[in-house]
Design goal:
By secondary structure, this protein is α/β, with parallel strands linked by helices. The protein has three domains: 13-28 and 57-213, Rossmann fold (3-Layer(aba) Sandwich), CATH 3.40.50.980; 218-441, Rossmann fold, CATH 3.40.50.12780; 447-549, ANL, C-terminal domain (GMP Synthetase, Chain A, domain 3), CATH 3.30.300. The chain is globular, with a radius of gyration of 24 Å.
């Protein structure tokens, strides 16, 4: 079976040689890096779940057996394998097993139902789907059985923690059992570090998700460095990721475990009470999640009843942290949590470091990570670089750039140039010290009478109000001004904030008058993407409808 049966894009030889010669592509694979760790720490605890604990040697044994079982079922090199599972150990086994057999993992969110599953599997020409049976009262296997007849490329289904229901179905546990006696199948598999092995989708906050493709070389060298740094900082690290493993932020938690030799606690659904219990019982030392995840934990009414003193590191990703959240994490656990900036297409672009000045940690998303270049270009003319302090489009160049969008070559070409620069469509500026200030998505900028207003700056200020749990700012369509500023607020204790209170709070901080919202809408919760980001497009649509309704 061809490693490029889906006609995945490939980098030119010149591009590949550039990063190899710079030492930033090391030709490591996910499973190869994992094998090195297993050899060094076979008896160390790798995975901790509600049902069982696995050492690194056991982790390898399960994933190897699964890999052999998948080959026996006719699944192998170049196949796209959709995985719709909670954060279960089987997901971890699949990550390593699919890498080992040269297949491509395509995570799909647990929140996806018939429309999303059909559209994504049809678009991707998915070959195999791995689903759970019934989880949280939803029949995932039943849904996939319904969809399969209409998806001619989807030739097999694998059921996890359930039973098979047809000739084209397998049970994951049975594949593992069959593979244990046939490990010799793995000897003939040849995986190139330049092969695509990861396909995921942008979170779709703008309503246009795109499938980005990564090779081992675009991901694994960075992951090995990150994992080694984490393990060096604390060899007894026990991590817990709140984010689902179907999202890149949660997915890569397994990589950190697999290539750092550190332990990972698995949580199959986000529940602040359960997470606090696990922090206390498993003595979790490092936690990660989106701002929404962490705020939910910190605001738990019984937070002080749990011993969370073991937490010594907190990673915030998926969305930019408000300065107030960074301050709360430091007050609570004494951790120097900063900001990172990146996306599925380039992973990590910039980040703040613990020894950065406090104002830089609060107000910026840091400086470029090693090997990465950054520039800001004029939004109307990409050939012109913006001056220091001037907002423009953020442009990236580095070894972690994705190889392309799946089945969208024109879109891929529109985002990059011949020199390897990737145009993000995000806005920001670089200050005189080289720190990047993130201003938001280009489509989120509010144009009020010709004045450009960047929502993120207002949101950060609103989040400092003691009665604001979260804030999101969008444009309110206006015939005369074009747009006005509208603030959506999730208030603390359900007590709404008035327009006057919001204005007074911002006036106290001496903001420019045009930044003060002219409309305030209180909500009990924000519409969210499956990855924990505020769905700004939904709020923009809501504001537009309210503007029409009020004439």
């Amino acid at each position: 079976m061809s490693a490029n049966k889906h006609d995945f894009p490939i980098f030119s030889a010149e591009y590949r040689d550039r990063w190899r010669s710079a030492g930033l592509w090391t030709d490591d694979t996910l499973h190869g890096g994992f094998d090195e760790i297993v050899a060094a720490y076979p008896d160390k605890i790798a995975l901790i779940s509600a049902d069982a604990t696995y050492t690194f040697a056991q982790f390898k044994a399960e994933s190897d057996a699964l890999a052999a079982g998948l080959i026996g079922a006719g699944i192998g090199t170049g196949d796209i394998v959709a995985v719709q599972l909670p954060n279960w150990v089987e997901f971890c086994f699949l990550q390593i097993a699919l890498s080992r057999i040269g297949a491509v993992i395509q995570p799909l969110h647990m929140a996806f139902r018939e429309r999303e599953m059909r559209n994504l599997c049809e678009f991707c020409e998915t070959d195999v789907a791995v689903v759970c049976d019934i989880f949280q009262d939803y029949d995932y296997a039943g849904l996939m059985r319904k969809l399969m007849p209409g998806l001619p490329n989807l030739r097999k289904m694998i059921v996890t923690r359930g039973a098979a229901g047809g000739a084209d179905e397998h049970v994951l546990a049975e594949l593992v059992a069959e593979g244990r006696d046939n490990l010799e199948r793995l000897e003939s598999v040849n995986v190139s570090p330049d092969d695509v092995f990861y396909l995921n989708f942008t979170s779709g906050t703008e309503g246009d998700p795109k499938g980005f493709l990564h090779t081992h070389n675009t991901l694994i060298p960075l992951m090995k460095i990150t994992a080694a740094m984490q393990a060096s900082a604390n060899p007894d690290r026990v991590s817990l990721a709140c984010s689902p493993m179907t999202h890149s932020y949660g997915h890569f938690s397994t990589y950190n475990c697999a290539m750092g030799g550190t332990s990972m606690v698995l949580v199959d659904r986000y529940n602040p009470t359960r997470i606090l219990e696990l922090i206390q019982s498993a003595r979790v030392t490092a936690m990660s999640g989106t701002p929404a995840h962490l705020i939910g934990i910190l605001d738990h009414p019984d937070f002080d009843k749990y011993d969370t003193s073991c937490v010594g590191a907190v990673g915030v990703g998926g969305a930019r942290s408000a300065p107030e959240l960074i301050a709360r994490l430091e007050r609570t656990w004494g951790v120097k949590t900063g900001n990172t900036y990146g996306m599925g297409e380039n992973i990590v672009h910039t980040m703040t470091l613990p020894n950065d000045p406090e104002d830089k940690v609060r107000e910026t998303v840091g400086r470029p990570v090693p090997g990465v270049e950054l520039k800001i270009v004029d939004t109307g003319d990409r050939a012109r670089e913006a001056a220091t302090g001037v907002v423009g489009e953020i442009v990236f160049r580095g070894p972690t750039l994705f190889v392309g969008y799946h089945r969208q070559p024109e879109l891929t070409a529109s985002t990059r140039d011949d020199e390897g620069w990737f145009y993000t469509s995000d806005l920001g500026f670089v200050d005189e010290d080289g720190y990047l200030h993130y201003a938001g998505r280009a489509k989120e900028v509010i144009n009020r009478g010709g004045t450009k207003i960047y929502p993120k700056e207002i949101e950060d200020l609103l989040n400092t109000h003691p009665r604001v749990l979260d804030a999101a700012v969008v444009g309110w369509p206006d015939e005369r001004m074009g747009e006005r500023v509208c603030a959506y607020i999730v208030p603390a204790q359900g007590k709404d904030l008035s327009l006057e209170e919001v204005a007074a709070h911002l006036n106290d901080q001496a903001v420019t008058k045009y930044m003060i919202p002219e409309f305030v809408i209180n909500l009990s919760e924000f519409p969210m993407t499956p990855t924990g980001k505020v769905r700004k497009a939904s709020l923009q649509e809501d504001a537009a409808q309210r503007a029409r309704d009020t004439g």
